[in-house]
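subagent[fold] <- orchestrator: predict structure for attached chain, return tokens only, no commentary.
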Amino acid sequence: MDFSFTEEQRDFRSALRQLVDKEIIPVANEWERTGRYPTEIVARMREMGLFGITTPEAYGGLELDMVSFTLVYEEIARGWMGVAGILGSHNLACWMIARHGTEEQKQQWLPRLASGECRTGIGLTEPGAGTDLQGIATTATRDGDEYVIRGTKTWITNARHANVLPVLVKTDPSASPAHKGMAILLVDTTTPGFEVQRDLGKLGYKGTESCEILLDEVRVPASTLLGGVEGRGMQQALSGLEIGRLNIAGRSVGIAQASYDAALTYARDRHAFGKPIADFQAIQLKLADIATQLQAARLMTYWAAAKADTGARVDGEAGMAKYFASETAITASLEAMRIHGGYGYSTEFDVERYYRDAPLMSIGEGTNDIMRTVIAKSLVNGTVTVG
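subagent[fold] -> orchestrator:
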């Protein structure tokens, strides 16, 4: 049993930390407050190849192992979780195209997506369907060599910057069970009828947009059907969400680490009653709790990622990591605020941003209640064993 990184992983993490410490942390608070899009950070992430971390090398990507994949999100979320979100939806879509796309689709999109020349996201959620993806109302009707798409998608990350968007649709709304009538279409966002209608206001997760999209009689070639076969859309989406949960777990660890770092630094520097508040047992207990839960979340995340690197399905393991790490991020950010006292509520300190960003981790890629049911099913059917 080896809990250490490979030399390549250590070097990669070091490069990520330099990016975060020098170019993200110094600007995150100001740019978030002013609503400034992180254009320069996106450009640096392009230079580092981070838009191609799930794309095979044959198509110009880095094709990272899953542990390194989680490190990307951990380190960048440590600096600014919203920026990690820019990469999250993009690389999830790339993963789906690489695993399920036809050779023509891979050749058409993956090289440009891996380089960051083109951007993408994932069009799943609707105003009336989030957790219950089989309940989507967006349809795609076959008309000769085209599909005509009608519907609305919401909470779409990268919507204003995407060149292509995988969109989950129903090609046969009467199918039973519903997933047999579902598909994913790779929609060119310049197609007439594709409209980004509005940006959604958010508590946290700033730095990237989350939008509502209207698909009004959008005509796309039949060749945009992911994998070239109808009836596989739900399975394709769920396979993407499986690795997406490792992304969320990594981001959660990053938020928790940033919260811990801020709390420890403040506790050492802040004096009360003639000594650092780190000398008070009440503060020490909070720091011990944050650190212990953080390290447990980190190890669980790497464990699930390492299992994914074997090629096995990791529904249960990724669910455990996402569930535990996201709850840890929420707890760590709140306790860090408490250690800061009144200053923790001030926008001059970073911890209030961590506190606003953390709750999304318990919702994204499936709510934590859903994660618990996923975990339970894995335990019952024996795909995950404990002990």
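orchestrator: received. Logging for downstream: DSSP finds ten helices and eight strands in the chain. The beta strands are 139-143, 146-157, 164-170, 182-188, 194-199, 210-221, 271-272, 275-276.
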